[in-house]
What does this fold into?
Amino acid sequence: MIRLNKMTDYGTVLLSAMASNYADNPMRLHSSVELAQQAGLTQTTTQKILKELAGSDFVHAQRGKSGGYRLLRPSADISLIDIVEVLEGPIALTSCVTTSVDPCSSRHVCFLGGNWEKINTAISHALKDVSLADLCNPENMFPDKEASKNTNQSQSQITPSVMEVK
It folds into this structure.
Protein backbone atom coordinates (compact mmCIF):
# COMPACT_ATOMS: atom_id res chain seq x y z
CA MET A 1 0.00 0.00 0.00
CA ILE A 2 1.26 3.46 -0.87
CA ARG A 3 0.79 5.65 2.17
CA LEU A 4 2.26 8.85 3.54
CA ASN A 5 3.44 8.60 7.12
CA LYS A 6 1.66 10.34 9.99
CA MET A 7 4.37 12.97 10.34
CA THR A 8 3.76 14.10 6.75
CA ASP A 9 0.04 14.26 7.40
CA TYR A 10 0.59 16.22 10.61
CA GLY A 11 3.15 18.45 8.88
CA THR A 12 0.60 19.35 6.23
CA VAL A 13 -1.89 20.26 8.97
CA LEU A 14 0.72 22.50 10.66
CA LEU A 15 1.53 24.17 7.35
CA SER A 16 -2.14 24.78 6.65
CA ALA A 17 -2.46 26.45 10.07
CA MET A 18 0.39 28.80 9.13
CA ALA A 19 -1.13 29.34 5.69
CA SER A 20 -4.48 30.39 7.16
CA ASN A 21 -2.91 33.68 8.33
CA TYR A 22 -0.44 34.23 5.51
CA ALA A 23 -2.61 36.52 3.35
CA ASP A 24 -3.33 38.90 6.26
CA ASN A 25 0.23 38.96 7.62
CA PRO A 26 2.91 36.93 5.81
CA MET A 27 5.53 37.93 8.40
CA ARG A 28 3.50 36.64 11.36
CA LEU A 29 5.38 34.13 13.48
CA HIS A 30 3.49 31.16 14.90
CA SER A 31 4.67 29.60 18.14
CA SER A 32 4.93 25.83 18.34
CA VAL A 33 2.47 25.92 21.26
CA GLU A 34 -0.10 27.79 19.16
CA LEU A 35 0.37 25.46 16.19
CA ALA A 36 0.13 22.36 18.40
CA GLN A 37 -3.16 23.61 19.81
CA GLN A 38 -4.56 24.47 16.38
CA ALA A 39 -3.57 21.09 14.97
CA GLY A 40 -4.56 19.05 18.02
CA LEU A 41 -1.06 17.59 18.29
CA THR A 42 1.29 17.14 21.20
CA GLN A 43 3.98 19.74 21.70
CA THR A 44 6.69 17.12 21.21
CA THR A 45 5.30 15.94 17.86
CA THR A 46 4.77 19.53 16.70
CA GLN A 47 8.33 20.55 17.57
CA LYS A 48 9.78 17.50 15.84
CA ILE A 49 7.89 18.22 12.63
CA LEU A 50 8.60 21.96 12.71
CA LYS A 51 12.31 21.24 13.09
CA GLU A 52 12.19 19.19 9.87
CA LEU A 53 10.10 21.81 8.06
CA ALA A 54 12.47 24.59 9.15
CA GLY A 55 15.16 22.90 7.06
CA SER A 56 13.08 23.49 3.92
CA ASP A 57 13.00 26.45 1.59
CA PHE A 58 9.40 27.27 2.49
CA VAL A 59 9.42 27.54 6.32
CA HIS A 60 11.46 30.00 8.36
CA ALA A 61 12.28 29.41 12.03
CA GLN A 62 13.18 32.32 14.26
CA ARG A 63 14.71 31.49 17.61
CA GLY A 64 14.26 33.39 20.82
CA LYS A 65 11.56 34.58 23.19
CA SER A 66 9.49 36.16 20.43
CA GLY A 67 10.46 33.56 17.85
CA GLY A 68 8.31 31.14 15.93
CA TYR A 69 7.66 29.76 12.47
CA ARG A 70 6.30 31.27 9.29
CA LEU A 71 5.89 30.39 5.65
CA LEU A 72 8.44 31.92 3.30
CA ARG A 73 6.05 31.86 0.35
CA PRO A 74 2.29 31.66 -0.26
CA SER A 75 0.62 28.27 0.14
CA ALA A 76 -0.17 28.30 -3.59
CA ASP A 77 3.59 28.11 -4.21
CA ILE A 78 4.17 25.11 -1.94
CA SER A 79 3.41 21.81 -3.66
CA LEU A 80 2.63 18.55 -1.92
CA ILE A 81 5.80 17.07 -3.36
CA ASP A 82 7.75 19.84 -1.58
CA ILE A 83 6.20 18.78 1.72
CA VAL A 84 6.56 15.04 1.17
CA GLU A 85 10.19 15.29 0.12
CA VAL A 86 11.13 17.39 3.15
CA LEU A 87 9.43 15.05 5.61
CA GLU A 88 9.94 11.66 3.91
CA GLY A 89 12.63 12.07 1.28
CA PRO A 90 12.37 11.60 -2.47
CA ILE A 91 9.44 9.73 -3.99
CA ALA A 92 10.67 6.19 -4.65
CA LEU A 93 8.01 3.51 -5.05
CA THR A 94 10.56 0.77 -5.57
CA SER A 95 14.30 0.42 -5.24
CA CYS A 96 14.71 0.37 -9.03
CA VAL A 97 13.69 4.00 -9.62
CA THR A 98 16.36 6.67 -9.98
CA THR A 99 15.27 8.54 -6.84
CA SER A 100 15.71 5.47 -4.62
CA VAL A 101 18.21 5.81 -1.79
CA ASP A 102 19.02 2.08 -1.91
CA PRO A 103 19.41 0.94 -5.54
CA CYS A 104 18.04 -2.47 -6.46
CA SER A 105 20.65 -5.21 -6.70
CA SER A 106 18.84 -6.70 -9.72
CA ARG A 107 18.70 -3.39 -11.57
CA HIS A 108 21.08 -4.56 -14.33
CA VAL A 109 19.00 -7.65 -15.26
CA CYS A 110 15.44 -6.59 -14.47
CA PHE A 111 13.18 -5.41 -17.28
CA LEU A 112 10.61 -3.69 -15.00
CA GLY A 113 12.71 -0.74 -13.84
CA GLY A 114 11.71 1.61 -16.64
CA ASN A 115 8.04 0.84 -16.09
CA TRP A 116 8.28 1.58 -12.36
CA GLU A 117 10.07 4.80 -13.28
CA LYS A 118 7.03 5.90 -15.34
CA ILE A 119 4.69 5.22 -12.42
CA ASN A 120 7.02 6.94 -9.97
CA THR A 121 7.17 9.99 -12.26
CA ALA A 122 3.38 10.10 -12.64
CA ILE A 123 2.90 10.10 -8.86
CA SER A 124 5.58 12.77 -8.45
CA HIS A 125 3.86 14.96 -11.05
CA ALA A 126 0.48 14.46 -9.38
CA LEU A 127 1.90 15.62 -6.04
CA LYS A 128 3.65 18.54 -7.74
CA ASP A 129 0.38 19.65 -9.35
CA VAL A 130 -1.43 20.03 -6.00
CA SER A 131 -0.47 22.95 -3.80
CA LEU A 132 -0.98 23.47 -0.10
CA ALA A 133 -3.57 26.11 -1.05
CA ASP A 134 -5.44 23.52 -3.15
CA LEU A 135 -5.44 21.11 -0.25
CA CYS A 136 -6.75 23.81 2.11
CA ASN A 137 -9.48 24.72 -0.38
CA PRO A 138 -10.38 21.53 -2.29
CA GLU A 139 -13.06 23.28 -4.36
CA ASN A 140 -10.22 24.70 -6.47
CA MET A 141 -8.50 21.34 -7.00
CA PHE A 142 -10.91 19.77 -9.43
CA PRO A 143 -12.98 21.48 -12.10
CA ASP A 144 -16.69 21.69 -11.47
CA LYS A 145 -18.36 18.88 -13.42
CA GLU A 146 -21.32 21.06 -14.36
CA ALA A 147 -19.09 23.86 -15.65
CA SER A 148 -17.06 21.32 -17.61
CA LYS A 149 -20.23 19.84 -19.08
CA ASN A 150 -21.46 23.30 -20.13
CA THR A 151 -18.09 24.12 -21.68
CA ASN A 152 -18.08 20.89 -23.68
CA GLN A 153 -21.63 21.52 -24.91
CA SER A 154 -20.84 25.07 -26.00
CA GLN A 155 -17.66 23.90 -27.78
CA SER A 156 -19.55 21.20 -29.64
CA GLN A 157 -22.01 23.80 -30.86
CA ILE A 158 -19.17 25.93 -32.21
CA THR A 159 -16.89 23.20 -33.57
CA PRO A 160 -18.22 21.26 -36.56
CA SER A 161 -18.16 17.52 -36.23
CA VAL A 162 -15.20 15.79 -37.84
CA MET A 163 -17.24 12.74 -38.72
CA GLU A 164 -20.31 13.42 -40.76
CA VAL A 165 -22.69 10.69 -41.86
CA LYS A 166 -23.75 11.04 -45.52
The longest strand covers residues 59-62. The chain has a mean pLDDT of 83. DSSP finds seven helices and two strands in the chain. The chain has two domains: 1-73, 79-130.
